[in-house]
């Protein structure tokens, strides 16, 4: 570098002028002046001081000219140059060479124009600045040293720095020297910016410029034509090109030179101090909205993409946003390269193809709408995850704008991808891989297998995406639940592929987008198919391997006393045991009796699997209880069956059994009573004094028989058979286990409520219990009556026998005292009869009272079948005649009917 | 400085050769003398953009001048 002698730039410039034009120093004076002005005014380069960039540009240029070999050669030369430390400003030299380079294949088209321009312009300059002709060395080109600081602070753009310089000057810079000359306007448009400004300089007044002395002087030549003094340009105005460069940075969320993020307004704003015409200001502020939108989306993705707890759905949402941003960046890079191409051509820019704010406004219109949608989405999805997020995205897809819809649809297909893959895993394999609780099926790991069906899995309502209906969600839950149930409870190891045919086909979330577009069709079909197959398979397994329906029937036969011969026999066998106090009962004895009863009746032909589960159970004993009160049949359920016959269900069954057992016992007791009456009627005919009492007994007994018969009829036909029929129909039609469970629960509920076992009919049940108690009491009263009567009868018969015997022996039949004794006994017996009668009367009275109350309660009951029962119980209006309350209520209900009759 | 220049003479020549070659590659149309002037200007911190503009202008001007002279002749 040292060898490059430190001649003044002016001298060098002059020799350059001479060299290029091939003229002597005097002849090139004008050209030299022009050169000095251009160099002096364009001190700061408009380009990056980057050697690498320049070399790359050169290579690109060479490649553009299809001179690959030369490009390689250049790289070689450039490397060599880099090893030398002679040059300080390698980039500068290279840049100079680049800008001077010409495509050898393309003849320069602009030469003529420039030439003409230069030729015309020169004389004018000669007029205005004759001063420079003589001593070029005196011109101060070292201007850069003084203004370097200033230019550096303003930036690298020579044009903008020029604008700042002229701020100091009071006079306006003519916008264009050539604008007023129509003949040259074409040339003006292709004119380089630098030279244009250089032409303009002499007229401008710039005190900091080295040309100051010249400018202060009034022009000596002919007056400047008025057409050349064009509309004054505003001081310090920022050029559009600068703004475009700024805007491109703002698009990426980077503060530009003039357009900066304003923290308080939360938007990009042009520096208020910058002088700018209103339209440019408006346009750029409209454009800079993109930067704000970009920042918003970017902030969201940056914050969430590393948050693992955000879940897979969230991650895919971020990924889709990233994808969109990538598209956006691609566009920006295209714009940047466009800008670079303009830079590359340096000052030789054609304004027709260059980037302007208006062009940007048009080009960025679509990206802006996309970004706006994304930003709105981001806003809306804030704080949501999983299915909720998908719902949020989906709700944005409901728009009339097809482009926006397509965008949202695309994002949705990405977002719903993980959800669909969860879903497929769940409905085909029954596996839940939802680490971040995003899927709408939740699993409770604390639930044991016995409650698996009921409690383990549940729907997360908030996570159901809106594009999946509640019905579909329920089915999805059921499908996976069924599979898990089969695996864990039924220990069924059938591979899922054999359960559902659909899972064999390639069902990957790949086709998520297609599925989403056809939610009602293909998706619904898929879920329906899986639901149908899985449920059917589950029911098959339950029926085939676990005899669900057989167990259901067994419940009815044994716990609901459907197997009449067995129950009757069991009662016969149990009777002597059950009359004993409850504390003296032993389970093993009763179990033995049960076995005997099973073996003796048709129950023995039942499935061994069922009989094995039948057992005796003693309820809790309270003081004074007899065996009847605590005895109960039991049915053991476990495994998959227990899902239908849950603990609560079994509790209900036991209560119903208890009730039915009691009613059955009444029937049984009344049968005994009737038997006693029939057997003893003939015997006691010889005791006419008893006939009144016996008649009373008969009447009461038949009243009771009637009542119990009607009750039994009601229980058997109105309650059990009807409910059973409904249950059976439902079970036959059931599509999944839930249907069976629901039908079974409904069945039990209706049986419980109609057997008066629920809370609302507690009064009725108490009355019924009281009636039952009266029957038991009547039985014991009648028993004691018969016992004493029969005792008396045998005594009398014995007396007669003895009398007869003695008479046969030829003795006196009876002695006087014997006869007196006999008479006295008979007397005594007859005296007990009124007591019996009154006891019976009291019993009858009580009984009828209770029945009447029961009827009143029945009449007021809301259940129609109960009202019918009351009608049946009082079909001959016997009780109505006695009970005014009954009459009143019956009157309202049956008044019209009886009047009609 | 002079002794350093002597030792670096070869380096300078080499550099100039390389630059000339590049100039030829890029078809700049500069001869060795103009090139060396330009390099010196650049080394003094002249804006290459402006310099290239000047050179282009100068060429065109000289061409037109020649052409007009030819026409005049």
Describe, in plain words, how this protein is organized in 3D.
The complex is a heterodimer of chains A (901) and B (73). The model of chain A is unreliable at 107-234 and 890-901 (pLDDT under 50). In chain A, α14 packs across α15 (311-344) and α26 (564-578) packs antiparallel against α27. The relative contact order of chain A is 0.04. The longest helix of chain A is centred in the last third of the chain and has 47 residues, at 762-808. Chain A has 901 residues and is an all-alpha fold. Chain A contains 38 helices and six strands. Chain A starts with 8 loop residues before the first helix and ends with a helix. The radius of gyration of chain A is 56 Å and the shape is rod-shaped. Chain A folds into four domains: 4-211, no CATH class; 240-383, no CATH class; 391-545, no CATH class; 646-798 and 832-894, no CATH class. Chain A has a two-stranded antiparallel sheet with strand order 1-2. Chain A has a two-stranded antiparallel ribbon with strand order 3-4. In chain A, strands 5-6 form a two-stranded antiparallel ribbon. In chain A, β1 (259-262) and β2 form a beta hairpin. Chain B is mostly helical and 73 residues long. Chain B has one domain (1-71). Chain B is 82% helix and 0% strand. Chain B is built from four helices and no strands. Chain B has helices spanning 2-7, 9-25, 32-43, 48-72. Chains A and B meet through α1, α2, α3, α4 and α5 of A and α1, α2, α3 and α4 of B. Chain B: This is Mitotic-spindle organizing protein 1. Chain B: Its main location: cytoplasm. Chain B: One of its GO terms (biological process) is gamma-tubulin complex localization. Chain B: InterPro entries: MZT1.
């Amino acid at each position: 570098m040292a060898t490059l002698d430190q001649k003044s730039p002016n001298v060098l410039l002059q020799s350059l002028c001479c060299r290029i034009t091939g003229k002597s120093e005097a002849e090139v004076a004008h050209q030299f002046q022009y050169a000095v002005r251009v160099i002096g005014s364009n001190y700061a380069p408009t380009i990056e001081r980057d050697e690498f960039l320049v070399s790359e540009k050169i290579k690109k240029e060479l490649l553009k000219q299809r001179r690959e070999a030369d490009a390689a050669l250049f790289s070689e030369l450039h490397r060599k140059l880099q090893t030398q430390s002679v040059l300080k400003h390698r980039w500068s030299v290279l840049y100079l060479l680049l800008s001077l380079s010409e495509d050898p294949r393309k003849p320069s088209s602009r030469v003529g124009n420039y030439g003409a321009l230069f030729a015309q312009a020169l004389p004018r300059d000669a007029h205005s600045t004759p001063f420079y002709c003589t001593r070029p060395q005196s011109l101060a080109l070292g201007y850069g040293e003084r203004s370097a600081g200033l230019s550096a602070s303003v930036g690298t753009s020579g044009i903008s720095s020029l604008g700042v310089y002229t701020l100091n000057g009071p006079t306006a810079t003519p916008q264009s020297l050539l604008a007023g000359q129509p003949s040259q306007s074409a040339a003006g448009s292709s004119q380089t910016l630098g030279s244009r400004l250089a032409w303009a300089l002499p007229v401008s007044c710039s005190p900091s410029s080295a040309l100051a002395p010249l400018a202060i002087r009034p022009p000596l030549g002919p007056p400047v034509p008025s057409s050349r003094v064009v509309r004054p340009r505003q001081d310090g105005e920022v050029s559009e090109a600068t703004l475009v460069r700024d805007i491109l940075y703002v698009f990426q969320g980077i503060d530009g030179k003039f357009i900066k993020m304003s923290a308080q307004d939360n938007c990009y704003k042009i520096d208020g101090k910058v002088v700018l015409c209103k339209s440019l200001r408006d346009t750029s502020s409209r454009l800079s909205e993109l930067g704000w939108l970009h920042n918003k989306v970017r902030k969201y993705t940056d914050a969430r993409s590393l948050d693992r707890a955000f879940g897979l759905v969230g991650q895919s949402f971020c990924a889709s946003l990233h994808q969109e941003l990538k598209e956006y960046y691609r566009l920006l890079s295209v714009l940047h390269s466009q800008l670079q191409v303009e830079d590359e051509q340096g000052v030789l820019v054609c304004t027709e193809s260059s980037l302007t704010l208006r062009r940007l406004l048009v080009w960025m219109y679509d990206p802006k709408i996309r970004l706006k949608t994304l930003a709105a989405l981001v806003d809306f999805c804030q704080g949501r995850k999983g299915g909720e997020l998908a719902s949020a995205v989906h709700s944005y897809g409901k728009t009339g704008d097809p482009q926006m819809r397509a965008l949202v649809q695309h994002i949705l297909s990405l977002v719903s991808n993980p959800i669909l893959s969860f879903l497929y895993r769940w409905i085909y394999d029954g596996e839940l891989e939802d680490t971040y609780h995003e899927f709408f099926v939740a699993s409770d790991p604390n639930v044991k297998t016995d409650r698996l069906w009921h409690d383990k899995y549940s729907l997360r309502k908030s996570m159901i995406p809106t594009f999946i209906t509640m019905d579909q969600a329920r089915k999805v839950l059921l499908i996976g639940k069924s599979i898990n149930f089969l695996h864990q409870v039924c220990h069924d190891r059938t591979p899922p592929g054999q359960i559902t045919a659909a899972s064999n086909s390639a069902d990957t979330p790949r086709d998520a987008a297609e599925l989403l577009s056809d939610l009602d069709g293909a998706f619904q079909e898929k879920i329906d198919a899986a639901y149908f197959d899985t449920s059917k398979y589950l029911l098959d397994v339950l029926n085939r391997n676990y005899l669900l329906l057989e167990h259901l029937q067994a419940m009815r036969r044994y716990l609901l006393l459907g197997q009449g011969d067995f129950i009757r026999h069991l009662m016969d066998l149990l009777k002597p045991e059950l009359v004993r106090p409850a504390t003296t009962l032993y389970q093993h004895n009763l179990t033995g009796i049960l076995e005997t009863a099973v073996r003796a009746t048709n129950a023995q032909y039942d499935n061994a699997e069922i009989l094995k589960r039948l057992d005796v159970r003693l309820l809790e004993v309270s003081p004074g209880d007899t065996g009847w009160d605590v005895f109960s049949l039991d049915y053991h359920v476990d495994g998959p069956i227990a899902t239908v016959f849950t603990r609560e269900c079994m509790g209900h069954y036991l209560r119903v059994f208890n009730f039915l057992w009691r009613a059955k016992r009444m029937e049984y007791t009344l049968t005994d009573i009737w038997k006693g009456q029939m057997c003893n009627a003939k015997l006691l005919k010889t005791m006419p004094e008893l006939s009144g009492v016996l008649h009373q007994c008969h009447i009461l007994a038949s009243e009771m028989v009637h009542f119990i018969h009607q009750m039994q009829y009601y229980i058997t036909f109105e309650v059990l058979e009807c409910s059973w029929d409904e249950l059976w129909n439902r079970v036959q039609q059931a599509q999944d286990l839930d249907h069976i469970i629901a039908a079974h629960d409904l069945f039990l509920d209706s049986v419980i409520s109609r057997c008066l076992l629920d809370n609302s009919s507690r009064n009725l049940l108490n009355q019924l219990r009281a009636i039952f108690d009266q029957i038991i009491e009547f039985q014991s009263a009648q028993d004691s009556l018969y016992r004493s009567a029969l005792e008396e009868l045998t005594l009398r018969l014995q007396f007669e026998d003895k009398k007869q015997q003695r008479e046969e022996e030829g003795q006196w039949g009876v002695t006087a005292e014997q006869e007196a004794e006999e008479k006295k006994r008979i007397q005594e017996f007859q005296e007990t009869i009124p007591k019996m009668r009154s006891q019976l009367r009291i019993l009858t009275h009580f009984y009828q009272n209770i029945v009447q109350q029961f009827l009143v309660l029945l009449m007021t009951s809301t259940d129609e079948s109960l009202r019918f029962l009351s009608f049946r119980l009082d079909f001959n209006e016997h009780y109505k005649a006695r009970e005014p309350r009954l009459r009143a209520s019956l009157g309202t209900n049956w008044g019209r009917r009886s009047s009609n009759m | 400085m002079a002794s350093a220049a002597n030792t670096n003479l070869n380096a300078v020549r080499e550099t100039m050769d390389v630059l000339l070659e590049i100039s030829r590659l890029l078809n700049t149309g500069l001869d060795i003398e103009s090139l060396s002037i330009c390099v010196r200007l650049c080394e003094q911190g002249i804006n290459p953009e402006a310099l290239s503009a000047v050179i282009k202008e100068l060429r065109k001007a000289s061409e037109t001048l020649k052409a007009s002279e030819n026409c005049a002749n």
